[in-house]
């Protein structure tokens, strides 16, 4: 799970917070900001004891910045890692997932910038939906990690896939886009290793619709024709569960042809009808149909009975 063990120098994490949205160079140290560190493809965060990496189950995963906004760690294996922010100071946005590399014999420094909530100028934080939120509402938000991969084993990340984030309107029977603060549609794109994410989204059920399929090493991939369902909970982002989205390559005989995107018109996940309310409408339809058939049968029996009575009296 973890890279090969190599003794290294320290890892220093520095956390700073924006002081004023109108002053780009005004920052302060942020204490009590908590993080997890993950190794690539690991389901659980790394453990630490007294500032040293450990495999001892008694170690702790949660890392917290001190009064100077700093975290010092050592004895990490050489390799690549992800830093995931779990909790920050009131009034600030959580930072994006940060990747960094530990090299033997070197000091690695990671700078984490937390921007004030409602700061539209932040180029580095995860984009939020357009609705302004209070701190209490922010507690009802979350996110989800994704990775676009091919169908090989082990899977390889695919860069450049683009998705639109939508919700399903059961009453109108249409997908509806999510809009950002600048009124643009919420679009995501996988990075060089296939990773992408949503964050600061209201809790609930959403879908991804692929609008651009990836091309990797000159090989075109077939775009998905089904909407990908996912649910945002309070833990779906902080537990770092990564949802893998698999693409298959276009047939060899069609690699030189244009790839056509067939966007789905409705969800295809099992059970979506009853969860959205559309199922209840369907059940009403079947109930109405059953009652109508029953009444028709009764009416036919009454007609036959009347004919028999006429024949007896005739």
Automatic annotation (TrEMBL):
Coiled coil: none annotated. Residues 121-147 are annotated as: Disordered. Pfam families: SpaA. Keywords: Membrane, Secreted, Signal, Transmembrane, Transmembrane helix. It comes from the Bacteria. Residues 27-114, 151-239 form the SpaA-like prealbumin fold domain. InterPro entries: Ig-like_fold, SpaA_PFL_dom_1. The chain crosses the membrane at residues 285-302. Residues 121-141 have a biased composition (Basic and acidic residues). Belongs to the serine-aspartate repeat-containing protein (SDr) family. This is Cna protein B-type domain-containing protein. It comes from Facklamia miroungae.
